[in-house]
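We were asked to recover a plausible sequence for a given structure. The inputs and outputs are reproduced exactly as logged, with field labels preserved.

PROBLEM: sequence recovery
POSITIONS: 242
GIVEN STRUCTURE:
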């Protein structure tokens, strides 16, 4: 069952509560009463088509309207991706770190294993943070510049400098490296470490790592299957201007 504009947004949450963070990234907060999806999007100045395509892509793993998503302006896609980055940096990564720290404070646990988990996670967190900051400071400004050049049909001196400094092809493989690190951490915890006595907390950390990995996969799919091909096409059209 796909989510449609005439559905009440509250019913959408009842249908799939995992969409709460996705909806929040559009700047939409809970408390929308009986308003429909279309009404809430209009009230929050959210592109209805983009909202529907994206929540349905999250809701149904087999649904991914690549061509329709590529028709969305890059600035809207970038705004959504930046909100996703914010949730990783300000919420998800810290929440998992706090759980690992709580595990470490349990006196009866095996400190050697817990320290290994903590160090590995810290390394992963630093790598993901660095990756996100690169996108925020280099990739996204480049994407917006490319779109601006295409709209204007001319290249200003400032835009020429940004355009010459980067290419979207340079960062395509970076996502695989970040996701592999997270998979390595889960594998170590599941297959090779002796679980500590506080198994409930240990299991929750693993479950949260799975949720983070799933969210990152959706995030990367938007970047790799929608934004990157869109920018490659724009780069080709710009070359015709030169």
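RECOVERED SEQUENCE:
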């Amino acid at each position: 069952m796909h989510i449609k504009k005439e559905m009440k947004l509250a019913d959408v949450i009842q249908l799939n509560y995992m969409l709460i963070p996705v909806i929040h990234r559009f700047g939409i907060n809970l408390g929308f009463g009986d308003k429909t999806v279309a009404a809430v999007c209009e009230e929050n100045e959210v592109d209805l088509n983009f909202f529907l395509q994206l929540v349905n892509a999250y809701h149904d793993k087999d649904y991914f309207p690549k061509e329709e998503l590529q028709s969305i302006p890059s600035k809207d896609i970038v705004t959504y991706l930046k909100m996703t980055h914010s949730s990783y940096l300000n919420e998800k990564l810290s929440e998992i770190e706090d759980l690992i720290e709580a595990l470490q404070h349990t006196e009866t646990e095996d400190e050697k294993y817990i320290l290994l988990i903590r160090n590995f996670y810290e390394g992963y967190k630093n790598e993901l943070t660095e990756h996100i900051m690169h996108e925020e400071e280099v990739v996204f400004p480049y994407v917006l510049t490319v779109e601006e050049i295409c709209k204007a049909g001319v290249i200003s001196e400032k835009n020429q400098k940004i355009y010459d400094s980067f290419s979207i092809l340079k960062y395509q493989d970076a996502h695989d490296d970040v996701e592999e690190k997270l998979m390595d951490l889960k594998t170590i915890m599941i297959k090779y470490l002796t679980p500590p006595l506080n198994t409930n907390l240990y299991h929750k950390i693993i479950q949260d790592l799975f949720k983070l990995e799933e969210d990152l996969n959706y995030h990367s799919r938007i970047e790799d299957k929608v934004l990157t091909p869109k920018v490659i096409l724009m780069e080709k059209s710009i070359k015709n201007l030169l």
